[in-house]
Design a protein that fits this description.
The complex is a heterodimer of chains A (533) and B (74).
Chain A (H helix, E strand, L loop, with lengths): L1 H20 L8 H7 L6 H12 L2 H14 L3 H31 L4 H9 L3 H32 L6 H49 L3 H10 L14 H7 L5 H4 L1 H7 L7 H26 L7 H16 L5 H11 L4 H9 L2 H15 L2 H18 L3 H5 L1 H25 L2 H17 L1 H9 L5 H24 L4 E6 L2 E7 L2 E4 L5 H18 L5 H5 L3
Antiparallel strand pairs in A: 1-2, 2-3
Helix pairs in contact in A: 1-8, 1-17, 2-8, 2-20, 3-8, 3-12, 3-13, 4-13, 4-17, 5-13, 6-7, 7-8, 7-17, 7-18, 7-20, 7-21, 7-23, 8-13, 8-17, 8-18, 8-20, 14-15, 18-20, 21-23, 21-24, 22-24, 23-24
Chain B lengths: L1 H16 L11 E2 L3 E2 H23 L3 H12 L1
Antiparallel strand pairs in B: 1-2
Helix pairs in contact in B: 1-2
The chains are: A mainly alpha (533), B mainly alpha (74).
Chain lengths: 533, 74
């Protein structure tokens, strides 16, 4: 229970920071103040909060779990590719969006699209597509809070109470603090992530008697030596995974965050230091996940390894239910918690538990982003701001925060987590497929609203198609081949199109649609184009 | 010229991410605990940071920055 007390102390600090610590008097633009912190974030808060916004529970817990099962490939697959693509997109797109936002007063990306392409309802369609893909993240955040508090308290705090506590804390500081509170909380959480990774690495390394031994033992055993290479994934899968980080800048909370910087030069340090932050968080998490395969003295980890071995040796003879049960037993999402339980002293496990809570509470900026989109792209756009005033718009945004949290909590209690894990998996691909919208709006004069609509609808339709395909075809097999080449296959991990992840054709087709449909339709007026080029 | 070099560097770095040459190799184990594939990507991440520094230094969209400066001198 002691670690849980540390977590409650941490939650109290978070509320203090989010609600009280950085309150300022509201100026003449309450909406800009609430939703964008009045575009006034300094460079270190901007870096830390933007990085924290992009790091979900997966960065610490999921990456260790993935590395536990798949080996060192997790780092190049998910971290070093993002370390290249994310800062590059901040440099090329984030800076331009910031400048357009400053010049024309945009608060959401759809406001920019409406202005750039002279469209109204098409903007609403884009908002709906973006929002639909963001909701599962918020539900996962609530579930993550419940699960983490349950684990940290040794099962004393039930899931429904843990989920409610975390949802209430997040809702409170988003409601009162808006973007400023969220940004400062994210900065605090990112600092904790960074400390957490380093401390966990040292403590567990010492506890395991040094990593050198663990790695040499892994290398010596034929069943584990492949974890130190990339044998478990194909080069084509690896190549197509580099399309996934394109999603980052297209997440509404990320692009809205780009508008919060006080000066454009604040992007400079963010762009340069982003890869280093990725390294500092992901490398320890991945390394610990791999090394956990030698932590056989930890009973819960030994049970996972035994389940994995049974699956490998007798998998074909087992029923699908038995295989599913063994897969669940061998999953490594809690591997870091298990390592800390065993190797860290109680007080340190408590502190590190707070770090884990920081990771699972990443839904704050997503809730705020949805609230911002609703109040700007729907409420204000359809006359609410004009009729009721800007203060009413902020109130609407705040009410939306409460409603969204309550709905997410109710759904989190009712439905099983794997549904939303899958939805999140598809949403990454969907946001990647929306990349042509931002690129075309900022860099291609000839792009049109119809091209944008075609891309957005394709992103939504392809996400639904992959989801339906995976729920209909549940066992791995080739569904369609052309001249002996596997065109469409169901794999254990998902779907493969010509050996690639679906995200690759999704992005390529979305880009082609943007080009072809734009060329076939009437371009925006010269006046609209001249505002951007 | 500078801009072209930076574009080539970005493409080269993207290609270097696909390091098939270490695909099945765990050894050498660098510093006694880091498999070569992981050590390569550690160095790769540091090189990305250096490239980002070069981009910021030599290809910063200063026309947008000018607007930023104007906004702060108003």
């Amino acid at each position: 229970m002691i670690p849980a007390l540390f977590v409650f102390a941490y939650l109290a600090i978070v509320i203090y920071i989010g609600v009280f610590a950085f309150r300022r008097k509201v100026g003449e633009h309450p909406a800009e103040d609430y939703f964008l912190a009045n575009r006034s974030l300094g460079q270190f808060v901007f870096l830390l909060s933007l990085f924290g916004t992009n790091m979900t529970a997966f960065a610490i817990l999921g990456s260790s779990g993935h590395a536990f099962s798949n080996g060192i490939v997790t780092y190049p697959l998910m971290a070093s590719s993002s370390a290249l693509v994310v800062p590059l997109s901040l440099f090329l797109i984030g800076t331009r969006v910031w400048a357009m936002g400053k010049r024309y007063g945009f608060i959401t990306p759809v406001q920019m699209f409406r202005d750039r392409w002279e469209c109204s309802h098409i903007g609403t369609v884009i908002t709906v597509v973006q929002a639909a893909m963001l909701v599962p993240y918020i539900i996962i955040g609530v579930m993550g809070g419940g699960t983490a508090l349950y684990a940290i308290s040794g099962g004393r705090i039930p899931f429904w109470i843990g989920g409610a506590v975390v949802a209430m804390v997040v809702m409170t500081y988003v409601f009162f603090g808006g973007m400023r509170g969220t940004a400062w909380v994210n900065s605090f959480q990112t600092t904790l992530f960074l400390l957490f990774g380093a401390i966990a690495l040292v403590v567990i390394g010492v506890g395991m008697g040094g990593f050198g031994n663990a790695v040499n033992e892994l290398l010596a055993s034929p069943s584990t030596s492949s974890l130190l290479t990339r044998e478990k994934v194909s080069p084509l899968f690896f190549l197509s995974y580099t399309f996934i980080p394109l999603s980052s800048i297209n997440f509404p909370h990320m692009i809205i965050f780009c508008l919060t910087a006080e000066r454009m030069r604040h992007f400079k340090k963010t762009v340069i230091l982003y890869p280093i932050c990725m390294l500092a968080i992901w490398l320890p998490a991945v390394f610990l996940g791999v090394a956990a395969n030698r932590a056989t003295e930890v009973p819960t980890i030994r049970a996972k390894l035994e389940a994995r071995q049974t699956l490998a040796s007798q998998g074909a003879a087992l029923s699908p239910e038995e295989r599913g049960e063994l897969r669940a037993k061998s999953a490594g999402d809690d591997i870091l918690l298990r390592l800390l339980d065993h190797y860290a002293p109680l007080w340190l496990a408590g502190l590190l538990g707070a770090g884990i809570m920081a990771a699972v509470m990443a839904s704050d900026s997503q809730i705020l982003a949805l609230s911002t989109m609703f109040s700007e792209d729907i409420f204000a756009f359809y006359g609410g701001k004009e009729r009721f005033g800007e203060r009413a718009q902020v109130v609407t945004g705040r009410v939306f925060v409460i409603a969204l949290t309550v709905i997410a909590y109710a759904i989190a209690l009712k439905f099983p987590q794997p549904i939303f894990d899958l939805a999140v998996q598809y949403a990454f691909s969907g946001y990647s497929a929306m990349m042509p919208l931002l690129v075309a709006a900022l860099f291609w004069k000839r792009s049109t609203k119809w091209g944008a609509l075609a891309s957005a609808l394709w992103a939504a339709a392809s996400v639904i198609a992959v989801a339906v395909f995976q729920s209909v075809v549940t066992t791995p097999k080739v569904v369609w081949s052309i001249g002996g080449v596997e065109a469409l296959a169901r794999t254990p991990a998902g779907t493969a199109v010509f050996g690639l992840l679906p995200v690759a054709p999704m992005v390529i087709i979305s880009s082609l649609l943007m080009i072809v449909v734009s060329l076939a339709t009437k371009r925006p007026s010269e006046k609209a184009i001249s505002r951007y080029f | 010229m500078k801009r072209s070099l930076l574009i080539i560097a970005i493409i080269a770095l993207y290609l270097l991410h696909q390091d098939f040459w270490f695909w099945r190799a765990a050894a050498p184990i660098v510093f006694g605990f880091l498999p070569i594939g992981l050590f390569y990507h550690l160095c790769y991440t540091l090189v990305i940071s250096a490239l980002m520094w070069a981009l910021v230094r030599h290809a910063w969209p200063s026309h947008l920055e000018d607007e930023d400066k104007e906004a702060h001198t108003d």
